[in-house]
Specification:
- This protein is of the alpha+beta class and 279 residues long.
- The protein has 2 domains: 119 residues, Rossmann fold; 136 residues, Tumour Suppressor Smad4, CATH 2.60.200.
- The chain starts with 5 loop residues before the first strand and ends in a 6-residue tail after the last helix.
- Strands 1, 2, 3, 4, 5, 6, 8, 9, 13 and 16 form a 10-stranded mixed β-sheet that branches. A 6-stranded antiparallel β-sheet has the order 12-11-10-7-14-15, with no helix packed on it.
- 19% of the residues lie in helices and 41% in strands.
């Protein structure tokens, strides 16, 4: 990355993020590299994506999820420095960023591509909106206490009507997030599958289903009860009975710069998910 312009996107809600962004930018300037700083309060598309080859995010996995959705159409490389709690998607810690970025600048890295999902919401034959997800698309009950009824089809064929708190449509990346908490399997990130996981199902199919990448999932809200659509944890739409959410693999991918070995996922999995022996 000899001529690369580096973007630094920091989470303004994290106290130390701004000072760290300035420290990284100064470090880059000492090495005669151009660095652009922007925050999650800005519209980073113009500043940190159109003019940059690498986007360094300072925050947790939530910051990377937001950055991935913005960066994917541009093919921008992402490198996360973990200032959050879990850091499944990040590559460096506050104490290791110099080593990691030094390797990046001399080309000692590899690129990991992760599939994303695209969700399009329909009402009365018209598109209400669409969004892209790196983790998951969820149709759920929102703040209401009652279960939702979700008629689900795969490639036009009826699969099930879930009576549940909701239905998660996840990527392999999302299999270690909400889908895991709901009882879904763990999929390694290099796979390109779509995962269906019901949330607290009641008298309906309760097993997770792993689908091929190329399928289209149609979810129709039925039973006269409203629902809520969330994309990577952010509310996208309030759904009425009869509304439909169509989910399929996005044409875009999230591109992550990695300096760790290619088997890092399994070590990270153990470190993040297996409880430590307190004895």
């Amino acid at each position: 990355m000899s001529e690369a312009v580096i973007g630094i996107l920091y989470n303004h809600r994290i106290i130390q993020a701004h000072s760290l962004a300035e420290e990284i930018a100064a470090w880059m300037e000492q090495r005669r590299r151009q660095a652009l700083i922007c925050t999650t309060e800005d519209a980073p598309t113009a500043l940190c994506l159109r003019e940059t080859d690498l986007l360094v995010t300072l925050g947790g996995d939530g910051s990377i999820l937001r950055a991935a959705r913005i960066a994917a159409p541009y093919g921008t490389l992402l490198l996360g420095i973990n200032l959050g709690r879990v850091g499944f998607l990040t590559e460096a810690e506050p104490g290791t960023w110099r080593e990691v970025l030094s390797r990046m600048l001399v080309g000692d890295y590899w690129v990991e591509e992760r599939m994303m999902l695209r969700a399009v919401t329909w009402r009365d034959g018209r598109v209400m909106g669409q969004g892209e997800a790196l983790n998951d698309v969820v149709v759920g009950r929102g703040a209401q206490a009652r279960v939702v009824h979700l008629r689900t089809e795969v490639d036009g064929g009826y699969l099930a009507t879930y009576v549940a708190d909701g239905l998660i449509v996840a990527t392999p990346t999302g299999s270690t997030a909400y889908a895991l908490a709901a009882g879904g399997p763990i999929l390694p990130p290099q796979l390109r599958n779509i995962l269906l996981v019901p949330i607290a199902p009641h008298l309906s199919m309760e097993r997770p289903v792993v689908l091929a990448e190329g399928v289209t999932v149609h979810i129709t809200v039925t039973g006269g009860r409203p629902a809520v659509l969330t994309v990577d944890g952010e509310v996208q739409a309030e759904l009425e009975s009869g509304d439909e959410v169509v989910v399929e693999a996005s044409p875009h991918v999230a591109r992550f710069a990695r300096v760790r070995e290619r088997t890092y996922f399994y070590k990270t999995l153990v470190a993040r998910l297996v409880p430590r022996d307190e004895g």
